[in-house]
């Protein structure tokens, strides 16, 4: 089986497993994840934190973004443009959202920001910094343009796997934040 077919097979498995993990997560798990995020983010006042609108059992990123906003950070959500690249647009809780090129609800206003921290959804991850996403390649294409941003996946600890085969287009992330711990990759330090 080629790598792309294997990844697509694994996506089906991990979409289901992630929903199960989400349904089992507790209020204590959410507090723990928030605490780990706060420890890795440091002082948030004046920073720009980008995240995503959660769906399909993804870790609830909006809670972390609202926390960041309360601590003085500017918040951004992804907008996928017609060239299938992400631009992070400023967002405040309550702002109007509209479907982007992939029909994902994104900020209507066009104030593009360069994040200090990017929080990334994933289906599973390995300890080499590989993540398995939904298969569109949007993050893999876009993240290299944010070389000054710290890029962290959000996951449940049960989403860790031994190994994900890296293809040429795959982009390694800097770390993953779970309810049990923070994983740092590529020589990053907290």
Walk me through the structure:
This protein is α/β, with parallel strands linked by helices. The chain has one domain (3-184): NagB/RpiA/CoA transferase-like (Rossmann fold, 3-Layer(aba) Sandwich), CATH 3.40.50. It has helices at 3-24, 27-41, 61-70, 138-142; strands spanning 48-50, 74-80, 86-90, 97-99, 105-107, 112-113, 117-120, 124-125, 131-132, 150-154, 175-177, 182-184. The strands form 3 sheets. An 8-stranded mixed β-sheet has the order 6-3-2-1-7-10-11-12. A two-stranded antiparallel ribbon has the order 4-5. Strand 2 and strand 3 form a beta hairpin. The longest helix has 22 residues, at 3-24. The radius of gyration is 16 Å and the shape is globular. It starts with a helix and ends in a 6-residue tail after the last strand. 32% of the residues are buried.
Distance between the termini: 39 Å
Main sheet record: 8 strands, mixed
| Whole-number tally of structural domains | 1
Q: Would you tell me the overall average pLDDT?
A: 92
Secondary-structure element order, N to C: HHEHEEEEEEEEHEEE
Radius of gyration over alpha carbons?
16 Å
CATH class: Alpha Beta
What is the name of the CATH architecture? 3-Layer(aba) Sandwich
- Uncertain segments are none
| Helix content class | 25-40%
Strand order of the largest sheet: 6-3-2-1-7-10-11-12
According to CATH, what is the topology? Rossmann fold
Number of helix segments?
Answer: 4
The shape, in one word, is globular
- Beta-sheet strand percentage? 15-25%
Count the beta strands: 12
Which structural class fits the helix and strand makeup? alpha/beta
